[in-house]
Amino acid sequence: xxxxxxxxxxxxxxxxxxxxxxxxxxxxxxxxxxxxxxxxxxxxxxxxxxxxxxxxxxxxxxxxxxxxxxxxxxxxxxxxxxxxxxxxxxxxxxxxxxxxxxxxxxxxxxxxxxxxxxxxxxxxxxxxxxxxxxxxxxxxxxxxxxxxxxxxxxxxxxxxxxxxxxxxxxxxxxxxxxxxxxxxxxxxxxxxxxxxxxxxxxxxxxxxxxxxxxxxxxxxxxxxxxxxxxxxxxxxxxxxxxxxxxxxxxxxxxx
Length: 255
Ligand SMILES: [Zn+2]
Ligand SMILES: [Zn+2]
Hints:
Number of helices: 9
Distance between the termini: 14 Å
Helix content: 40-55%
Structural class: alpha/beta
Low-confidence stretches: none
Bound molecules: zinc ion
Order of helices and strands: EHEHEHEHEHEHEHEHH
Mean pLDDT: 98
């Protein structure tokens, strides 16, 4: 039993064959999938998918790429949608200083505001951090994200950052890129981190693990990421599946 803690099933990439994708995930042992609606046009679709599959839950928020689209109504809309019991976390929110699709200062402000909103809603946060490690830590601290905790998804910081995040009640989510040839520094970090703070994710349709790199990613492939974690940490696949599943169920309050 595995959990894909982060996928984007509402994206157009899955429009044609979503049910097939979900069926394949179940066949490869994926017990739950958490689908992340990152912008206004995706939120309702994420909830619909969650409502029509008892093993799928939704996560809603505004991605840093879309920070510039936030207007006077955005947070009210999100507040309303997050009352739905299928919504189990707030995100993905954060900072992307790699692509900079929204201005940095705006990303910082929207990140702060959305942490406050997550706290108000009592939902754990799913944070996105790309090339903004120091700033991400600073904002999580200054906005007291510790009050709700959450997940640093697609973790790409160093060991010290991981430790600081864990101290604030955050879990570290490992994506498929851990299987890539050039990911040795990341594997070294994961080797040192306690399994009790790790999750696995696909970020499907992105970041497809080996041996399917280059193709569209899908939740069933989370198995390859979990296998790599088992290999790195020299524990059984069953152990990785068991502990990462417990971690995800705890953070998302699924029993
Ligand atoms: Zn992300
Ligand atoms: Zn994502």
